[in-house]
Specification:
Helices cover 46% and strands 22% of the residues. Helix 7 runs parallel beside helix 12 and helix 17 crosses helix 18. Pfam families: EAL (PF00563), GAF (PF01590), GGDEF (PF00990), PAS_4 (PF08448). This is EAL domain-containing protein.
Length: 771
Amino acid sequence: MSMKLSRLGNDDADQTARLMSASRRLIDEAARLFPLAAAQNDRTIWLEAMIDEVPDYLYFKDRNGRFVVANRAIVNDNRREGLDSLEGLTDFDIHPEHVARGFFTIEQEIIRTGKAALDMEELIRDSRGNLKWLLTSKLPVRDAAGAVIGLVGVARDITERKRSESLHLGQAHLLKMIALGAPLAEVFSSLILLIEAHVPDVAGSILLLAPDGRHILNGAAPNLDPAFCKQIDGAEIGPAVGSCGTAMWRGEPVIVSDIETDPLWAGYKVLVAPYGFRACWSSPIRSYQGKVMGTFALYSRLPGEPSAECMKLVGMATHIAGIAIERKQAEDSIQFMAHHDALTGLPNRSMLDERVASAIEAADDSGGTVTLAFIDLDNFKLVNDSLGHHAGDELLKIVSARMLRCVRSGDSIVRLGGDEFVVLIDGALPEGETVEGETVEARLQAVRDAVATPVEIEGRAFQVTCSMGVASYPEHGRNATELLARADAAMYRAKELGRDAMEVFTAELANRAHEKLERQEELRRALALGELFLQYQPQMDLATGRIFAVEALIRWRHPERGLVSPGDFIPLAEETGLIVPIGDWTLRAACRQNRAWQLSGLPPIVVSVNVSARQFQAKDWVERVATALEESGLEARYLELELTESLIMQDVQQAVETMHRLEQLGVHLAIDDFGTGYSSLASLKRFPVGRLKIDRSFVQDLPEDNDDAAIAHAVISLAHALQLRVIAEGVETREQVDFLRAAGCDEIQGYYLSRPIDARALQAILCIPNL
């Protein structure tokens, strides 16, 4: 490199001389450090070669920012001829004003303060128009007296590093957008713009594969003409459908280097011709499991294939797009599950409130009405009990699909749970009022007819009907809660009238609902204030005549209405859930009383307590039984729990597990009302029970009724074959006792022995050795 100075003017002569002197000192120091090289070559030539071969920018400037020395890297990047072509020039001669001004300001500060500026990031545009990032350090140069006479600068091209950082930041931003649930179109657009910023002269596109797996849907293409995107939307994928449709079809990248000649574009090049694209490179977007979900494509106006670096970026893009799509699908799935029934796919209760509110708002705007029908399937339990829950689920799905076909797209079928549904129709019920030419009553009747159509499940034909209660806005309620409550009340009235009926809410039903609410509150107070009490009915061993057990029966002494029959309040307790605390109270009270009899010196007997379905299904039921025994001090062998067939058959496997846990606890188990449920012999043999109780309906007409006599004989024979004892309830006459004894029945209970009586009266009976 030539070290001669350009003519700088008289005012700068001293400064330039000092800078040259400093440069010479640098050369002398290099020669001292490398004496072998200095001995072989002139040290000036050696330094020139060393500086010129450095790929980084290396230069010296005087106090006014004029280049004194510049290496080949700077000369070449600024398209200058000769190594001395920059001498005497400033940044203002080779860079735009604003760029040069920034350099000059920093350099003058260095010269003024004598402090170096290290590792600065500078953005320039070279003579070819390419933007470059430089990592620059600038240090002051001093003369022998220590005065700053210029500066030396070293700059390294970090464009690729900055591109990599930009790419990583872009990726992080995209992942943050995905995590925060940004709309898919926004994520796609940002992803495409990121890739376009790193691949020159291309336009990106993301297309999605429709849920049917056959058609193309637009995802995003921020720099493609919307008219072009519209033409692609809805196209069917195939083996020769451009780049993207073919990539989705094949499930592999499709690189078309020339749209004009490639047969994959034969039927589509007319669409892209107006936009000047000549190449299209498409890669499939896949799910984590490898399923094709769409494509990421780049369009180029120049024919050719993408570079390896470009394809690497496309691979990153398809990966991020896949994450975004799967995240959105998962979000949509969660949203769907939150508002829809998992079994039938129908909207659930949370969605019902929203739809009723929207329907009411629309009715207010138009002066219209809204009809809400509450549906409960009749005899659904029979399917569950006889064929199991799988068959019941299948029936629910079939019925749901049928009901959907009976309503318009603007109406709704909602599953509340179990076998309860709601039909929401934009219109009122009164006959003569029509919705699209059809009365609402006719539409609801069509739903009832669809439900009642026979269904074949597992080779067996079933027919279920439904009880329907109807309420209308604004006549019967002002919101979803009121309408649902009143339609529910009407549905229960339909049940009471024999089922398979439709009832419309009336003022009478409103009064009944109000009375029901009052009774519920009264029952809640009765439990809290001690108005409930127990009576006991003895059970006798027919062989010995000994009273060996009693059944605890709950009663309610109302402060105004007097003694309330269990038949009047137990169904209400079961419906409202109060049966659980009432049942727990009954269990604890019965255990305490039995222990009290024992402590009074009476012979030990067993106390039998009825168990409700809600109690038995509670997860902590066994623990609650154990607690009642522990608190009372009663041994488990003196407690018997009576379970109904229908209770057990709701979930046989769970019931058997719970029964075994109770058996391990030491309590006795009995099946109450045997013969009225639907238990199979296969299930019966699995139950760890000790007794079967023949229902009173099979006893009351004995011995005259031949059918009841046959049933009694069959039950007794079956029980004994399974090594179970048999007790008959509802025994009132001597003839019934004689028949049952002759038939082999083990025990009896009923008015023949005693009506239900209080603990003191029963204590007197227990003192009698044998009846």
